[in-house]
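Sanity check. The docking grid for glutamine depends on where the pocket ends up, so I'm generating a full predicted complex first rather than guessing from homology. Inputs follow.
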Amino acid sequence: MSVATVGVVTFPGTNCDGDVRHAINRGAGRDAGLEAVSVWHEESSLSGIDAVVIPGGFSYGDYLRSGAIAALSPVMQAVRERARQGMPVLGICNGFQILLEAGLLPGAMRRNRTLRFICRPVTVRVERTDTPFTLLYAPGEVLELPIAHYEGNYFAWPDELDALERRGQVALRYCGPRGEDARVHDAYNPNGAAGAVAGLTNPEGNVLGLMPHPERASESVLGSRDGLRMWLSLGRWLAARREGRRAVTARAGGEADGR
Ligand SMILES: NC(=O)CC[C@H](N)C(=O)O
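Predicted complex below; grid placement will be based on this.
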């Protein structure tokens, strides 16, 4: 089986890079035909890399705004170029903040409305399954994933948010344990995010940013395996692309673009 290479980017202050590499290399990611390698932030070329994960942490100490300084690094210029060509890019927590600051995803992050760092499991609903990272989830499926952040309060102006909803860019939304919509049941919105957005894609779907940490929910010993299918989905999507066909989603007969 051929193996696809996932570049896991490290900035000064990143602290989840090892966990992401572990989730991919020691877990199901490897079975899915993935191999994670480290990419240093000064790297300006991503040759040989098939997908990129920007992990969580506190790049540059969260100075200025979370992700603002990392967004200016050489590697993000390369990520921007490759993302434009369709390479899958996943930003987790601080990675999501960096994608927003780099302009790869629309909107911004504000401090949590409680002005407290929140570290606990939350439930999110899968709203979009035709992306390289979500194709093995069922539409509307409820996942339990941990969050750990201070600036996770997603913001977009109301008209911008309406446009995101219309284009189906909200990939994950905070919800209750039975899928109750956190836009209606505000108690299920942990940080005050506009539209209860927990994860967002670009219109094409190849760039996904999310506040919860799938790498912390990728093996049973961690209490949830709900994050595992992000890596399995990516493996399947990249394998399909290698073979020049479309990846089949979990939904019977569903199709996800593998090109
Ligand atoms: N876990 C993380 O990536 C932390 C995210 C971020 N630096 C915050 O606290 O908002």
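Relevant for the grid: Residues 122 and 213 are 10 Å apart (CA to CA).
Also worth noting: The chain is about 20% helix and 25% strand.
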